[in-house]
């Protein structure tokens, strides 16, 4: 395919320019089929380490590996050509800035993802700078950080005290100065999220952080009702996916058992 005919995906610069102009949309995907459906509909597709729960059925995200993130990102890149693809750096792959760089370089070399995401506190600023200096686009994940679920004893909503809000604002500003193109803000009280969003020029993509942020992200299986065990307060279900699929499965089983499938037209 010539350069002229290649489908151009949205760039990190275009994402950054949407701040204050239009809301940014992002969904997770872990395979080519879903990615193809979401492609061009949402601005960004996140291959999140949430795949360890939503795809693999794990209890948390901690056991996802760099190999599995790369495998699923390759699949998503096979399906999506227009939306910007962000790959999560999994637990243990960013413990030093050098390791973060090695991990991110593998993602850039082995997939077509345009950016990586990493969960950070102030200690992660060095890693962000290291990645950006080496030509890797970074989305920083702050607020509630699922990779800290075991050490913190659960998923704790953030932004409840003035001290915590000020710390998140300082962190967001440090991240901006380090060259990240955006921030994912998870599980932060709406009023605090608004203040954090106003404190930086890079876009803040929220999840469970209220409406006054620059965009929203949801895990696809939550958004479309494929994960039925539990619906977090911040999730809106746009489809009863599992219910619809179950109806289809039951109809298929019924048709096979009754001999109505396959028909003559469906046979050679
Ligand atoms: O891994 C993930 O899917 C995430 C969510 C918070 C969107 O980071």
TrEMBL record:
It is found in: Cytoplasm. Its cofactor is Mg(2+). 3-methyl-2-oxobutanoate binds at residues 49-50, 88, 117. InterPro entries: Pantoate_hydroxy_MeTrfase, Pyrv/PenolPyrv_kinase-like_dom, Pyrv_kinase-like_dom_sf. GO terms for biological process: methylation; pantothenate biosynthetic process. Pathway: Cofactor biosynthesis; (R)-pantothenate biosynthesis; (R)-pantoate from 3-methyl-2-oxobutanoate: step 1/2. The active site is at residue 186. GO terms for molecular function: 3-methyl-2-oxobutanoate hydroxymethyltransferase activity; magnesium ion binding; methyltransferase activity. Binds 1 Mg(2+) ion per subunit. It catalyses: (6R)-5,10-methylene-5,6,7,8-tetrahydrofolate + 3-methyl-2-oxobutanoate + H2O = 2-dehydropantoate + (6S)-5,6,7,8-tetrahydrofolate. Catalyzes the reversible reaction in which hydroxymethyl group from 5,10-methylenetetrahydrofolate is transferred onto alpha-ketoisovalerate to form ketopantoate. Homodecamer; pentamer of dimers. This is 3-methyl-2-oxobutanoate hydroxymethyltransferase. The gene is panB.
């Amino acid at each position: 395919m010539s350069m002229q005919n290649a489908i151009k995906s949205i760039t990190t610069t275009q994402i950054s320019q949407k701040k204050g102009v239009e809301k940014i949309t992002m969904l997770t995907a872990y395979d080519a089929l879903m990615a193809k459906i979401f492609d061009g509909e949402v601005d960004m597709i996140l291959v999140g380490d949430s795949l360890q729960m939503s795809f693999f059925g794990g209890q948390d995200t901690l056991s996802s590996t760099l190999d599995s993130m790369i495998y699923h990102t390759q699949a998503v890149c096979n399906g999506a050509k227009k939306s910007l693809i962000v790959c999560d750096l999994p637990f243990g792959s960013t413990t030093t800035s050098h390791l973060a760089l090695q991990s991110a370089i593998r993602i850039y070399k082995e997939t077509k993802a345009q950016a990586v995401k990493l969960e950070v506190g102030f200690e992660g600023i060095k890693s962000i700078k290291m990645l950006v200096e080496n030509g890797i686009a970074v989305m920083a994940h702050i607020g509630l950080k699922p990779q800290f679920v075991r050490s913190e004893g659960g998923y704790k909503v953030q932004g409840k005290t003035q001290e915590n809000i000020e710390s998140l604002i300082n962190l967001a500003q440090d991240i901006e100065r380090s060259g990240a193109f955006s921030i994912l803000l998870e599980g932060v009280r709406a009023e605090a999220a608004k203040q954090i969003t106003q404190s930086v020029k890079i876009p803040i993509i929220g999840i469970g952080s209220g409406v006054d942020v620059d965009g929203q992200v949801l895990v696809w299986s939550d958004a479309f009702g494929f994960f039925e065990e539990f619906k977090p307060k911040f999730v809106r279900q746009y489809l009863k996916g599992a219910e619809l699929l179950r109806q289809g499965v039951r109809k298929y089983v019924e048709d096979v058992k009754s001999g109505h499938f396959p028909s003559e037209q469906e046979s050679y």
